[in-house]
Amino acid sequence: MLRPRVRISSSPRQERYFSQNNEYLIPDDNSNDFSGLGLSNPAESATKKYQLEITLEDTDGGYTLIAKQQFNDSKCGDLILNGLGIKGHTGAADSAVQCWR
Q: How crowded is residue 50: how many other Cβ atoms within 10 Å of its Cβ?
C-alpha cells in the first residue's frame, strides 16, 4: 500500500502554520478548508483514494491528521498521524507499520 502524499506533506505544513500563527489550522465546522496549508479543498491524495481530515487534540501534539479511505480497505482502513509523529490505522491489520510502508 502506498502512503497518501497529501497526508505526509500536511504535517510539515501544520508545523509551519503553527510557527507563523501560534496555532494549528483546524478547519471550522467540518468545512475541510485546507487552503491555509496550501492544499486543495477537499485535500485528497493524488489517486483520490484518501481525503484529509484534521482534528484538534490536546494530548497528541496539538492535532491529528486522518487520511480517510475512499475505497474498501478493511486491512488498513483510515491512516492516522498525530502531531507527535505517531502513526496509526483503523483497520484489521496487526500493526500500523504494515499500512505505512
A: 25
- The pTM assigned to this predicted structure is 0.68
DSSP code string of the chain: -PPPHHHHHHHHHHHHHHHHHSS----GGG----GGGT--SS-B-TTSSEEEEEEEETTTTEEEEEEEESS--TTT-SEEEETT--EEESSSSS-HHHH--
pLDDT greater than 50 at residue 42: yes
In whole angstroms, give the CA distance from residue 79 to residue 93.
11
31 or 84, greater pLDDT: 84
The answer to whether residues 69 and 48 touch, using CB atoms and an 8 Å cutoff, is no
- Say how many Å lie between the first and final Cα of the chain, rounded: 7
